[in-house]
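Troubleshooting log. The previous structure file for this entry was overwritten by mistake, so regenerating from the original sequence record. Sequence copied from the archived sheet and checked twice against the printout by T.R.
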Amino acid sequence: MRAIFAVTGLGLLGLAACAPRPAVAPAAPAAPLPVAGQDWHFHLDGDSAMLAYGVEASDELRLRFDCQAGSGRTTLLQPAAQAATEIRLESGGVTGRWRATSEPSHLDDEFLLLAEAPVNAPVFTRFRALGWLTLDSGGERVGLAAQAVSVGEIERYFKRCE
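Regenerated output below.
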């Protein structure tokens, strides 16, 4: 009896080893942490709205969105060390890529990347829900997370632009 059990047990182990393993879903990118002194800032000027990430009232800017109220579109502006043809964003595993134009910045020897996108793009929907984006800046992932007090500013911007 022991010999049969041993053979049967090995057979079952062999079958288990050959059985397909369940696919493991890739892990969602980790949320970036808010950075002291940097945040998302919302501003209105008539029918124009702006949402910018950086240090308020300074030239330190990572990303900016501009729109006209009710347009359904947003302009993206990203300072960059070199000219590029694309702006790439991610939020909670959802990505967005937009063809960009580059122009020299008048403030320093960097460039400004400009692109236009629909405000209902999936990456923006995710951004509105999570309060953070990551920006692919020359192959480096830069986290742009809202401070707890300003999460509502993101929603105000997108509501204004819809």
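Residues 77 and 114 are 5 Å apart (CA to CA). Archived copy saved in two places this time.
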